[in-house]
């Protein structure tokens, strides 16, 4: 059965590349399937790579390899003195992509910007709930519905955001994937034809690559956008060959079946580095991996129970086994490379005997729990199943019986957000914009409960600190607030913080122009491959 599925996947890639014999083709062995192609509906990097970073643009963009903001679809902007109004001048002459399924009749204008945001927070907008069961999780989790007072069209190439309050990370947030700009003309046509669901299946934007076809769980094909405002790409055809097994990705790379792969197994890195045909990039990831307890469900609603479980897990053993030294044990919910990191925080010590006594003191005995293990490799957790097995063995030593469960990736992300979810879930995060708010409020704020806040943890003391930091323009003052928030987090222990990892990106030496990104973004604009 495995051989058959592998053959079908390989056949799908060949089929999608048919007709490309005389064009320059780059094959990226991606680690998983996208949940969909409307990136505003999702939060996974796998989905962003396949949609927003290839097909779409944003008003502002992050400079390659940096967290610095630069002009995107907006060529300039102005902020009011009180920080509550941002006026963007749109880049003139930007064309939406022409595809087999839609031909635009006009260029980008303010209507597209307004549509792209209003659909995410106006309940009466027909696009607000066009995908059954889906929501604009990122937009809501970051508090944008409460932040935005109005979005106004000044003229065709000028749009003004009016906020209810100033917010320090607002501009950086607009560089994130959920803020991608969509074609209102395309949306209107889909709505008129009764085919709104196609927005999530056949994406159309202003980005460097145009979507061609998707073979589910096998491959995605794109072609260079000839009308891209940043110039046509040197690579004619871009193919995502979906390969969930990291060892298989490495084999394909060495065999020349793909040119770039993410997230190699730690055990494979040394061999890949020795291959004279390959280059292996490396950098410290702006990331964290964690085990999130559901704090709404007993006995995980008690901080002393959560801390006891944390003390029973040997995190260094997980780092050694899963990353073979290419990671460090995490004690905070933000990485040590991020400003405001509180190094004075003391981690929960590995002490099984003390952990067992703490559980007994809390009145907990014969505890049975589930640990959810991700089915895909991510930079912050290369092998969640192995990590879960190590946790299972550790917790058994203090009398806790663990069942390991998993689901298909999209289902895993959806179900793990449920407030009634049982047990604890392994997940993680790579920063989207270089701001601590993107970790502390996005993953742990009260507004993110039921979404990105997989711990379902709403703590007023913590929430007040991170909300105040959002309103504080001075970075030194924000740093003090975030450092206090990290102390509250550690005291309450909604997570067991696991690791911060190094990120390796192996690729063929034929590839040029690829820049490793601290935000975990995989971008293919500006990338070339020698024939």
**Which shape, going by the Cα principal axes?**
globular
Biggest pleated-sheet summary: 7 strands, mixed
The counted number of beta strands is 19
Percent range for β-strand residues = 15-25%
Radius of gyration: 23 Å
Assembly type of the chains comes to single chain
Count of DSSP-assigned helices: 17
- Indicate the mean pLDDT: 94
What's the gist of this structure?
This protein has about 525 residues and is of the alpha+beta class. The protein is built from 17 helices and 19 strands. Helix 15 (about 435-445) packs antiparallel against helix 16 (about 460-470) and helix 16 (about 460-470) packs antiparallel against helix 17.
Task: Tell me what the structure shows.
There is one protein chain. With 531 residues, the protein is α+β, with helices and mostly antiparallel strands. 30% of the residues lie in helices and 20% in strands. It has helices at residues 2-16, 45-50, 110-121, 137-141, 144-147, 170-173, 184-192, 246-255, 266-274, 303-312, 315-323, 352-361, 384-396, 409-416, 437-444, 460-470, 475-492, and strands at residues 25-28, 60-62, 69-71, 74-79, 85-90, 148-155, 158-163, 209-215, 219-224, 237-241, 278-284, 287-293, 327-329, 368-372, 401-405, 424-430, 495-508, 511-512, 528-529. Strands 11, 12, 13, 14, 15, 16 and 17 form a 7-stranded mixed β-sheet that branches. It has a 4-stranded mixed β-sheet with strand order 1-10-9-8, with helices on one face. β8 and β9 form a beta hairpin. α15 runs antiparallel to α16 (460-470).
